[in-house]
Write a structure and sequence with these properties.
Elements (H helix, E strand, L loop, with lengths): L1 E8 L4 E6 L2 E6 L14 E6 L5 E6 L13 H11 L4 H5 L3 H13 L5 H13 L13
Antiparallel strand pairs: 1-2, 1-4, 2-3, 4-5
Helix pairs in contact: 1-4
């Protein structure tokens, strides 16, 4: 099943996965990578018959944490063309910032476009160089 890591505690080495409206606890022994899980990661997990998690691993783009997944030029183009509505931030995984940019643009009557344009320039010059998961941009 595909779930979402809601929490992880390094001290107890346990975490919680959310799948639909249910929560499942797992231990680091069930984690398939060497690096510890991160809150917010999407995971594929297996369970036995009594709803106990047996194996947990990252899904898709998260299989290798250090491998770049998102492209800088796509974010730059989205920033220049649709920066007022935060599409570049949504593309990079910063959903809250994207929604904030939409609200600022609506509240200011369109002047929020300056925020998007500024971030497009920052992306172009390399000052913004990571996505929401901390991976470098291609």
């Amino acid at each position: 099943m595909i779930g979402h890591i809601e929490s992880y505690d390094d001290n107890t080495q346990t975490g919680v996965i959310k799948f639909e409206d249910k929560f499942y606890e797992f231990h680091i022994d069930q984690w398939t990578l060497d690096s510890p899980p991160k809150v917010g990661d999407d995971v594929d997990f297996d369970m036995d018959d009594d709803d106990t998690v047996t194996e947990v691993g990252p899904v898709g783009a998260y299989l290798k944490d250090t491998r770049p997944v998102k492209r800088r030029w796509v974010a730059v183009v989205l920033g220049f063309l649709f920066g007022a509505i935060g599409l570049h931030r949504i593309y990079l995984g910063f959903y809250g910032l994207g929604i904030a940019q939409i609200l600022v643009t609506l509240i200011t009557g369109g002047y929020g476009v300056v925020w998007g344009f500024t971030e497009a320039v920052l992306l172009l010059t390399g000052h913004i160089y990571k996505d929401a998961k901390g991976r470098f941009l291609k």
